[in-house]
Amino acid sequence: EKGGYEHFMLKEIYEQPNVIKDTYRGRLLANKGIIQMSGVEDNLEKFLNAKRILIVACGTSWHAGLVAEYIIEEFSRIPVEVEYASEFRYRNPIINSDDIVIAISQSGETADTLAAIKLAKENGAFVFGVCNVVGSSISRETHAGAYTHAGPEIGVASTKAFTTQITILTLLALRLAKAKGSMNHADYQRYLLELEMIPEKVQEALLTNEISKQIAAIYKDASNCLYLGRGYNFPVALEGALKLKEISYIHAEGYPAAEMKHGPIALIDEQMPVIVIAPNKGHYDKVVSNIQEIKSRSGKIIAVVTKGDTQVKELADHVIEIPETSEALTPLLTTIPLQLLSYHIAVLRGCNVDQPRNLAKSVTVE
Ligand code: M6R
Asked: Which residues does UniProt mark as catalytic (predicted)?
């Protein structure tokens, strides 16, 4: 049932080109300039009148929420706040009847997320679910929603759920951008076409498996690891660190690259691998100077760069190349080598990749 792969996690990583396509199939009609998701169409007025979107989730789903915050605010110009469901539910949050709450959950059974939804409903908010498991508690508890079509995710470490969640939320942001007129038509059309090409590019990003394995062999005995990214890729840094922690038991932290100088830079020495997400878009020059800061303190740099990069290549100890895409879509590609890197490190350390210690696939305890 692992389809010839050694672990479910690896199988699920490799399924991503297909499941991203499954997730947008019938919803993204790029040539016609159409995005259609019934849960959104049926409630379009509510979305357009929303003063604010609150995203609640846990773990990897929370990271997808953070990526969505950047994308929705940029495309749709609606203020977004992202909260850990567990914090939200216990802190007497301000919830208004013109808020939209988006709950993201692969399993649809996460206790804290479910409780956050109930609280939001009690306070009159409209709750939209992004779930993977059909008929799950969260999918039933929400007013409307859109399923990710990732198929069953067996590995405890979430992989394909993350990229399909980002896919759905990108579709949502684009749909709202069109309805609101917050994005010019040419950009909108370009994003649709770019999104349609993502599965092919993910396929190409999977070719980094070999290099990821080689890098894993060099750093498998590290006791710490730092992940840095900016903008859309800051949440990817968090997700990369979570993936490494949970399956290899190496302590890892994700940081917005610019925050390094406010503390974490003190950790950097020749023992510290730093994974920097540095695609050629957005704040590339800033990331290059962050890399220089790491290098001058003898940190080991593993950089995820766009194919054809030259500047980072000169500075980094290792580079992993991914295909080019629009800045907002880069998380769908930069995530791939980080998943592979964690996977190979965990395998080389002899860890139980699919069922890491102390963890369960769905967290139904509060
Ligand atoms: O099923 P959910 O998406 O609600 O689960 C949320 C987290 O428990 C989950 O993402 C967890 O962090 C994963 N093990 C991460 O790989």
From this structure: 361 (for fru-6p isomerization activity)
Does the complex come out with an ipTM higher than 0.90?
yes
Can you tell me which atom of ligand 1 is nearest the CA of 161? 3
Concatenated DSSP letters of 93-126: ----TTEEEEEEESSS--HHHHHHHHHHHHTT-E
* 43 exposure class (CB count in 10 Å sphere: 0-12, 13-18, 19+): middle
Whole-number Å distance between alpha carbons of 15 and 131: 18
Residue 143's alpha-carbon distances to 20, 324, 331, in angstroms, are 24, 37, 28
Summarised one tens digit per residue, pLDDT across range 279-319 is 998 889 999 999 999 999 999 999 999 999 999 999 999 99
CA–CA separation, 177 and 224 (whole Å): 41
Residue 209 C-alpha to ligand 1 middle, in angstroms?
24
Full DSSP string of 182-243: -S-HHHHHHHHHHHHTHHHHHHHHGGGHHHHHHHHHHHTT-SEEEEEE-GGGHHHHHHHHHH
15, 17, 202, 241, 296 from 164: Cα distances, Å: 11, 10, 12, 19, 38
Catalytic residue among 121, 180, 220, 361: 361
Is this model's pTM higher than 0.80 or not? Answer: yes
Cα 161 to ligand 1 centre (Å): 9
Which residue do the tokens 């999104």 mark?
A: 195
- Ligand 1: nearest atom to the Cα of 362: 1
Q: Ligand 1 center to residue 157 CA distance, Å?
A: 8
Q: How many residues does the chain have?
A: 366
Clarify whether 300 is annotated catalytic: no
